[in-house]
Amino acid sequence: MVTFMNHKQALNNTIFKVIGNLADDASLECYVIGGFVRDYFLGRKSPKDIDIVVVGSGIELARKVARELKGKPKISIFKNFGTAMIKHNELELEFVGARKESYHHDSRKPMVEDGTLEDDQKRRDFTINALALSLNAATFGDLLDPFDGLGDLERKLIRTPLDPGITYSDDPLRMMRAIRFATQLKFNIELKSLQAISQNKDRLKIVSKERIVDELHKILMADIPSIGLALLNQTGLLPMILPELTALQGIEEVEGQRHKDNFWHTLEVIDNIAKTTENLWLRWAALLHDIGKAPTKRFDKKIGWTFHAHEFVGSKMVYKLFKRLKMPLNDKMKFVQKMVLLSSRPQVLAEDFATDSAVRRLIFDAGDHIDELMTLCEADITTKNPKKQKKYLANFKKVRQKIVEVEERDRIRNFQPPISGEEIMETFDLKPSKEIGIIKEAIKEAILEGEIPNEYKAAYQYMLKKGTEIGLKHKNNE
């Protein structure tokens, strides 16, 4: 299906007229294609990156455009890919010559040759991304839609221009992209296409971890991440990416006692947290908060199913997972580890009476991330019982209030000992030794337990007392 409807209103930015006029001067066909056109028809905010396809040399047209625009913007040329990029105002314009592609079985990098617009549209991943608007003056704004992408937008359908088995085998990253678009746009994937993803899932092995994670991040940052995670699971891709997550799937029953399916529980948690935060790494923490439950699951005849120390085990698993996926092993990874490690602590406080001492310890351990930790724990409430849900949320609200009160009074966040190691050495005339650590730890514990306030004078007197207890003599004998 080829549609020639005029959509000049999509091209009201003067940059499109400039590009079209220069293309006419050079006797080149020129079109805007891909995400910009798709999002125009969806009524979404236009992306800043715009793809321009030229039947001829995209690089040569880009050079002409760069010379014509005010301020003579910088042009970046990528000869190996036959593309050129111009950054103008807030836009990123990428020019490419229309091309045909063919693939080797062991690589997703295509062999490229010049082609027509339709050749270029055939190589696109999905029909909704193959929509093109003409920029040439005689046909300015005309929509060229050979695969009924417009119809698929109306049907809310992800479909490939060519046979999906070929599309996904040629470039397996498109399997991740299909699921990502289905998640972001809340579209369905055509059944034939969904089956082709399952059939070609092993092809994902030739895709770099960085590319896979980039798509995974976009799924996690969607309004309802569980759409994509469920599709990844259904097609068999998720066990290849996050086996730690799929290991949580299933319910076991022993002697009439069952545990919940922690995989589907996790998907509910990630959806809950997506309603309250745009923090990608907190969403990762929600995704991984229970991964320690698979290796720690045990059945005890007296108490039933247990997952002893699953938070500790899970936090250790985060490092291996991040390393395998070539994700950053920096403060972002440490943040996720900390959230997983502490993920049950506020729940215990919410269920019991939260003592000042317990709250101080939570603030001490969570530091600046106490608010994120509370957000994670609130998202972890997935009970379908309205009374229980209301009760749990009310309890967490009390814990939050208690955190504010204790923090204002005791200043535990980013705790720094009132007494330094150097002062302990000076007071007791010590060289570096284990006694210094013993006294510092005792002062910290006394503050966290509420035995002394978090103040220098009280800590100094406690230091003297503790030093005497372990047999030290201080200089001034005060």
TrEMBL record:
Residues 265-350 form the HD domain. InterPro entries: HD/PDEase_dom, HD_domain, HDIG_dom, NT_sf, PolA_pol_head_dom, PolyA_RNA-bd, tRNA_CCA-adding_enzyme. CDD domains: HDc, NT_ClassII-CCAase. The keyword Manganese does not apply. The keyword Transferase applies. Keywords: ATP-binding, Magnesium, Metal-binding, Nucleotide-binding, Nucleotidyltransferase, RNA repair, RNA-binding, Transferase, tRNA processing. Residues 30-159 form the Poly A polymerase head domain. Its cofactor is Mg(2+). Pfam families: HD (PF01966), PolyA_pol (PF01743), PolyA_pol_RNAbd (PF12627). One of its GO terms (molecular function) is ATP binding. GO terms for biological process: RNA repair; tRNA processing. It comes from the Bacteria. Residues 187-247 form the tRNA nucleotidyltransferase/poly(A) polymerase RNA and SrmB- binding domain. Belongs to the tRNA nucleotidyltransferase/poly(A) polymerase family. This is tRNA nucleotidyltransferase.
